[in-house]
Amino acid sequence: MTLQEPMPGTDPDILPDPVPLMGCPYKADPYPLYEQMREAGPVHRVLFPSGVHAWLVTGYDAAHAALNDERLGKNHDRGNDRWRARASIMPEPQHSQLQVHLLHQDPPKHTRMRHFVTDAFTPRRIESLRPRFQELADALIDTMPETGPADLVTGFAAHFPFQVLADVIGLPQDLAARFDRDWGKVVQPVGPTDPGRPLYEARLHGLQSYIADVVAHKREHWDDDLLSRLVVARDRRELSQEELDSMIFQLLVAGQEPVTNQITTALIALFRNPDQLARLRDEPDLLPRAVEELLRYDSAFELTTWRFFDKDSDLYGTKVPAGDSVIVSLCAANRDPRRFPAPDTLDLDRTPNPHLAFGHGIHFCPGAALARAELQIALGTLLTRLPGLHLAIKAEDIEWIPAVLGRGTNSLPVGYDRRL
Question: Residue 8 contacts by C-beta under 8 Å, 6 or more apart in sequence?
């Protein structure tokens, strides 16, 4: 079956054009819609809450190919006026100062910039830091109530990834303690006329001032860590000031919130599959393989960021105008039955498991090894030290974050028998 062919027995005309990707039912469970879209074809025009129209790639083969398609660039300069009118959520000058990080660059600039961060996230280095990560996880569990109920986001998931990140990149404890998780919401679209715009801009200014303080501190107190090396690269003119600030912005935001969200999506998946949760608790050696399956089953990176053609192009039989945004649905690709047998089943024995939760190609997540270690340690620690861990509300009452590109929850009420 080719990428252009719908699966047998389906009617592609039942989908609206564009397909709206919004609303609480969609955020709670987007998979029925993704299944419908996959069956109708690999590419669909979609509408986001901000009013942006985009082209969504849904099937595994199409997604894998799009992530490696050299015709598709990430630089925002490729976006046309229709896209720019609604998608440039950051005002100037902040957009130009904070949005020139790796996710928005193409080779050769992307290659040059990525070179500065890869050494900090190598699997060997991350493996050497596991004992420290375990200490951080245990310390957080020690502060939780001796018995439930408790909120696993405020009590654990919102803090553990950032504490780990701070150690990995060299963010001093006093500066790490000042970081406001609320600043991470600057990546969620808030239009110029939205009532929440003043709060959005306040978050943006707060984060930008914080980044300036980080740079000033590292310039004065150099150490052999990633943040110091980035500041030195700026002083040697190997990075521009905008590139430096944007890369720190990306580290602080992309290095924490997605892992926080992935902890919640993984736990929810296990709560909904108690037999798998019990097995994982009893067989901790399953953790590495289980984490891969949990990443596939419900990824915190639901959709990729924008990609653009620089001229009108064909995308699996669909004509996409130059400068229109193309987005890959990683979650839809990871549930494609053409690639994964019984894709809606959480199978901790699934192997091989070539999921796309971290993307693919030149923009494959440089922090993948770190995220995997964090998830293994987080889940292993929670299941070991909180026996009887279970969801304390009905599954249908979970409030999913309204983020456009990601999945997760801002709270996760749980119960447990005791704290070990």
Answer: none
Q: Is the pLDDT of residue 9 over 70?
A: no
What are the tens digits of pLDDT across the range 222-238?
A: 899 999 999 999 999 99
Task: For residue 367, give the CATH number of its domain.
Answer: 1.10.630.10
**The pTM is what?**
0.93
DSSP code, position 153: I
- 47 neighbors 19 (Cβ within 8 angstroms): yes
Residue range of the domain that includes 289:
12-415
Region of residue 359 (left: phi > 0; alpha: psi -120 to 50; beta: else): left
For 135-177, what is each residue's pLDDT tens digit? 999 999 999 999 989 999 999 999 999 999 999 999 999 999 9
Q: Which of 96, 160, 187, 221 is nearest to 381 (CA)?
A: 160
Q: CA angle at residue 378 from 375 to 381, to 5 degrees?
A: 140
Number of domains composing the chain: 1
Task: Tell me which H or E stretch contains 120.
Answer: none
Chain position carrying tokens 């690999």 = 42
Asked whether residue 5 is domain-assigned, the answer is no
Q: What CA–CA distance (Å, rounded) separates 228 from 171? A: 9
Which SS3 state, helix, strand or coil, does residue 239 take?
coil
Q: Going edge to edge, which strands form the sheet with 150-151?
A: 150-151, 413-415, 390-391
pLDDT, tens digit, 9 for 90 and up, residues 270-295: 999 999 999 999 999 999 999 999 99
Nearest to 418 by CA among 391, 386, 395, 394: 386
Indicate the angle between helix axes 130-142 and 368-385, nearest 10 degrees.
40
Q: Which amino acid is at 199?
A: L
Q: How many CB atoms lie within 10 A of CB 247?
A: 25
Residue 397 lies in a domain: yes
2 inside domain: no
- Separation between Cα atoms, residue 56 and residue 104, nearest integer Å: 18
User: Is 302 within 8 Å of 42 (Cβ atoms)?
Assistant: no
Residue linked to tokens 């304390």: 392
Q: Is the residue at 261 inside a domain?
A: yes
Task: Pinpoint the alpha helices (H) of 22-172.
Answer: 24-28, 31-40, 60-67, 81-87, 94-98, 109-114, 123-128, 130-142, 152, 160-169
CB hemisphere CA count around 385 (13 angstroms):
20
